[in-house]
Amino acid sequence: MVMDKKSVYLRAFKEEDAILINKWRNNIDIMSLTCGRFRYVSEEMEKSWVHSKIMNNVQEEYFAICLSDGSNTMIGYECLRNIDYFNRSAYAAGIVIDPQYKSETYMIDAFVLLMEYAFFHLGLNRLVGRCLKIHHNSRIMMEMLGFSLEGLERESVYKNHQYMDVCVYSILYNDYINLCNNDGYTPLAIARRVGKIRKQLKNKI
Amino acid sequence: MEINEFVEKFAEVFDDADGLELKPDTYFKELDKFSSLTALSIIAFADENFDVTITGKDIRGVKTVKELFDLISNK
User: Fold this and answer.
1) Cβ neighbours of residue B46 under 8 Å, at least 6 residues apart?
2) Which of A63, A109, A141, B45 is a good FRET partner for A194, with 20 to 30 A between their CA atoms?
3) What residues of A are in the B interface, CB distance below 8 Å?
C-alpha cells in the first residue's frame, strides 16, 4: 500500500531497504535522539529484521518514508507498534530520518501520514507516542501534531551513561478529527502552534 | 522593517539563540541549530510579524537571511 501526500509518501519495506536502515541504526547520533537502545547491528541481522517486518504486519507496521519529488528516495522510516485491535490503540514509534533531510519538514509530513493511516485506515481510537524529555524538538513535534502530554516516565531509559526521563503523549481519534475539521494540519496551522508550544514548554516539566 | 531589525528579530525562530551571530548574508539553513521545526517557526514568524504566508517550498528556495527578508517583503 502506498499513501501519498505532500513532500513524502509512505510505503511498505522492501528487502533492499535493509542497507539504508542498517546505516541509520549504526549511527549513534541518530539513535541518541530516540528512546531505543543503541547497538551495532550487522547487515545480516538487519536483512533478517527487515524481512520479518515485511512478512508480519499485524501487530506492528513499518513504513519507508520516501520523497515524493519523483526521485522516490527513501529518507527514513517509522512504524506503528503494539497495535491493539480490541482497544483500538497503537504506539507511534521509531521515526528515523536521515540527517541530511533534518532541516526539511519531511518528518512532520511523515508523521501526519502515519496518523492518517492509523485513524482512517486501521480505525484506531488512540495513538501513544514517547520521546526523551531532553529532546525538545520531539516534544514540540508531538504537541504541535495534537498529542497531549500524559505523564513522565522517570529515569526509564538508560542512554549516554545516564538514566533519562521519557515523556508520554497520546492523541485520540476525536482530538485528531477536531483538528482536521478546523484545518489544524495545514502547514500554517501547524507552524502557528510551534511558537506557542515552544514558550509553554519552557515552563513545563 | 529594515534588514537589520529583521535579522535581530529573526533570531527568535531558533530554540537557543545563544552564541548565534546572524547577519544578512548568513546561510541560515546551514546552521547546526536549524531543524524542521525552525522551518515551521519561520512560517509562523512571517505570519505573526508580517501577516504574510510563506511555504516550505519558499524557504527551500532561499539561502541567506537577506534572501528570506526579500522574499517576505515582496509577498
Assistant:
1) B52, B53, B54, B72, B75
2) A63
3) 7, 102-108, 136-137, 140-141, 144, 187-188, 190-192, 194-195, 198
Tell me, what amino acid is at A61? E
Calculate the alpha carbon distances from A67 to A4, A9, A72, A166, B57 in Å. Answer: 10, 6, 5, 30, 14
CB contact at 8 A, A185 and A179: yes
The band of B19, judged by pLDDT with boundaries at 50, 70 and 90, is confident
Q: What is the pTM of this model?
A: 0.87
Q: What is the ipTM of this complex?
A: 0.80
Q: Are A150 and A158 in contact (CB under 8 A)?
A: no
Instruction: Please check whether residue B33 is in contact with residue B15, taking contact to mean a CB–CB distance below 8 angstroms.
Output: yes
**Nearest of A39, A191, A193 to residue A105 by alpha carbon:** A191
